């Protein structure tokens, strides 16, 4: 058995083990500083990050929670439209949804 395939102590053949789950998250890229922007706080994304996200001024970003923290992605227009439609339906059919939830 090589070092790469060696199982940790206590792990049997029938057990699943994900080595990546044990590895600490590595910071990728650069460090961004949180700054005051008007009455809010924000970060300025460098050009290379904007290029990787394929976004520019006025575009929207989607922020999602991951096991390692948060992830930024370019907002998907189709998803945004579907979310707006779902919110409209939930607002109009609030009583029906409330009754179904009970």
Commentary on this structure:
By secondary structure, the protein is an alpha+beta fold. The protein has one domain: Pemi-like Protein 1, Chain: D, CATH 2.10.260.10. Helices cover 34% and strands 18% of the residues. It is built from four helices and four strands; from the N terminus they run H-E-E-H-E-E-H-H. It has helices at 19-22, 47-53, 77-92, 94-101; strands at residues 35-37, 40-42, 61-66, 69-74. The strands form two sheets. It has a two-stranded antiparallel ribbon. It has a two-stranded antiparallel ribbon with strand order 3-4. The longest helix is centred in the last third of the chain and has 16 residues, at 77-92. The radius of gyration is 22 Å and the shape is elongated. It starts with 18 loop residues before the first helix and ends with a helix.
Task: Note the main attributes of this structure.
102 residues; alpha+beta; Pemi-like Protein 1, Chain: D; two-stranded antiparallel sheet; two-stranded antiparallel ribbon
Provide a compact summary of the structure.
This protein is 34% helix and 18% strand. The protein is of the alpha+beta class and 102 residues long. The strands form two sheets. A two-stranded antiparallel sheet has the order 1-2. It has a two-stranded antiparallel sheet with strand order 3-4.
């Amino acid at each position: 058995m090589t070092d790469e395939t060696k199982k940790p102590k206590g792990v049997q053949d029938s057990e699943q083990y994900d080595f990546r789950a044990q590895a600490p998250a590595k910071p990728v890229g650069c460090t961004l500083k949180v700054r005051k922007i008007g009455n809010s706080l924000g970060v300025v994304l460098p050009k290379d990050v904007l290029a990787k996200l394929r976004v520019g001024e006025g575009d929207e970003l989607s922020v999602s929670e991951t096991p390692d923290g948060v992830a930024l992605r370019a907002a998907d227009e189709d998803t945004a439209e579907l979310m707006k439609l779902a919110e409209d339906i939930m607002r109009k059919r609030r009583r029906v949804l409330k009754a179904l939830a009970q």
